[in-house]
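Tokens as discussed.
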């Protein structure tokens, strides 16, 4: 009697595998050895945004000198920000650059904080981050517009 025929209207005792079904069990166990596709990570490009607030940043010129296309930008959610409940701070990872260390403020009074994602586009990103998604940025370009204003464009990605 096959396993399928025993499932149709059988008693519980009939559902216990018998030695005759050993071949089926070994076949089912061998399926574990088959390679199943595993989940993988990928970076999904979302949008390019300018960094907001660079004109308020002290020593932005010195910081901008160290920025290059392709530098990694860390996005930090600031739900307690008094100006914007959806605020997302943009920090640049410049470890090893003199005067720019992992702390907030150092010997050259430079910090890694560049500014924020603009308010007009940050709500969706904030919701994604609040839902546990990992978002990060990559510097696309750094342009000096005036002596105290730099347009820094950052491409935003979601790791999924």
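Sequence:
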């Amino acid at each position: 009697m096959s396993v399928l025929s025993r499932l149709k209207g059988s008693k519980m005792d009939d559902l216990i595998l018998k030695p005759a079904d050993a071949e089926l069990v070994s076949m089912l166990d061998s399926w574990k050895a088959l390679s199943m596709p595993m989940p993988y990570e990928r970076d999904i490009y979302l949008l390019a945004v300018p960094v907001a607030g660079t004109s308020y940043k002290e020593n932005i010129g010195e910081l901008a000198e160290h920025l290059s296309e392709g530098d990694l930008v860390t996005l930090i959610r600031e739900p307690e920000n008094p100006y914007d409940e959806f605020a997302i701070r943009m920090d640049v990872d410049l470890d090893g650059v003199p005067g720019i260390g992992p702390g907030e403020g150092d010997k050259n009074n430079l910090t890694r904080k560049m500014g924020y994602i603009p308010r007009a586009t940050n709500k969706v990103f904030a919701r994604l981050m609040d839902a546990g998604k990992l978002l990060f940025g990559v510097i696309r370009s750094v342009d000096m517009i005036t002596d105290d204003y730099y347009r820094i464009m950052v491409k935003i990605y979601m790791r999924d």
